[in-house]
Design a protein that fits this description.
The protein has 335 residues and is mainly alpha-helical. Helix content is 53%, strand content 5%. The longest helix has 21 residues.
């Protein structure tokens, strides 16, 4: 039995499915084209995409293309990808397991997070024989660890992603990518009106994207994973058992925790808007909507507890901003 497993894994390793090597995540060279477009204004401040965020990444699209192929065709298609694209496929697959398997143990989560951080394009460079030998040895060690943490069936998603069913992962990505065809504000509105389980999965998939493609520290990735697992139906459900003062305090504490680990731009990009990596301009305001008071913009820039207000006729919204779009919406932060 062990010899068959090892033989199967070695075959997969040859096409480069798994690794324990240095972190890879590169910002796309053409991202600067959309930086000026992707802005939010608050107290005169302009949002600029932080370098830790992978903008205009095709990681999800490439994964979907392979996931939807018959299994026999996936290996050929995978072999034709660039080394960087192969690494991204593996990292996306690993990150999506957090969404697909929300009840993983702490040890299982740490194993997957560590694996994501060590997959790189270097894995697929076969020009250095000694490096390839070391990678092969590491691959067998990881295989054994995966088989010790997961059942043989579940372990396939981690050590044989080209040969396992990817329908669930594809469904998650389809819903997320379809949402991102809309403008930024419309995305938040659509997500807010989704059935609660779909809303949970949209935000979890968003965080999986950043785990797979971002250039974050270990502490930041651990925090993203913590938020991913905390995005549950309860997180998006009004907390009727709390007073307004208690809700405000809990919201403030969460924001302070986020801002203690991330910059304000990172926090906004990861937790407070959907699909910042794919900027789509919102549709022009319809004439009939011009007759209604506008909904206020999000106070993404101001951490802590600033006083906020808006221009005459601006309607404050009870949610739509903040982590998961669950906090109140205001036009301007007054410091």
């Amino acid at each position: 039995m062990n010899s068959r497993i090892n033989s199967a894994f070695l075959t997969l390793f040859v096409v480069g499915l798994f690794s324990l090597f240095t972190v890879y995540a590169s910002a796309q060279t053409n991202s600067s084209v959309k930086i000026d477009e992707n802005t939010k204004t608050c107290s005169g401040k302009k949002f600029v995409m932080p370098p830790t965020i992978s903008a205009d990444s095709d990681a999800f699209e490439n994964y979907l293309k392979l996931a939807l192929m018959p299994k026999i065709e996936r290996r050929r298609a995978f072999s034709e990808l660039l080394n960087e694209q192969k690494a991204n496929f593996i990292k996306v697959n690993l990150a999506l397991q957090f969404v697909k398997r929300p009840n993983m143990t702490k040890e299982q989560q740490e194993f997957v997070l560590d694996a994501i951080s060590k997959v790189s394009a270097d894995l697929y460079d076969k020009s250095d024989f000694e490096k390839a030998r070391r990678v092969e040895q590491s691959a067998f060690e990881i295989e054994n660890k995966a088989l010790g943490l997961f059942s043989l069936t579940d372990a396939g998603d981690f050590i044989e992603p080209l040969g396992t069913d990817k329908n669930e992962e594809a469904t998650l990505l389809h819903k997320y990518e379809d949402l991102l065809k809309n403008g930024s504000k419309m995305r938040m509105k659509i997500a807010k009106e989704m059935p609660i389980n779909d809303r949970v999965n949209i935000w979890r998939t968003q965080l999986a994207y950043h785990l797979a493609t971002g250039k974050f520290s270990k502490a930041q990735n651990e925090f993203i994973l913590e938020m991913l697992t905390s995005f549950s139906p309860e997180f998006f459900t009004p907390r009727a058992n709390l007073t307004e003062e208690e809700k405000s305090k809990a919201d403030k504490m969460l924001l302070l925790r986020i801002f203690s680990v991330f910059t304000k731009e990172e926090a906004f990009a990861i937790f407070m808007t959907l699909g910042i990596q794919k900027y789509v301009k919102d549709e022009p305001t319809k004439v009939i909507d011009l007759l209604r008071p506008p909904i206020c913009d999000c106070n993404w820039y101001c951490p802590g507890n600033p006083s906020c207000g808006g221009p005459n006729g601006c309607m404050s919204s009870p949610d739509g901003c903040g982590p998961g779009g669950t906090l109140g919406c205001h036009y301007l932060c007054v410091t």
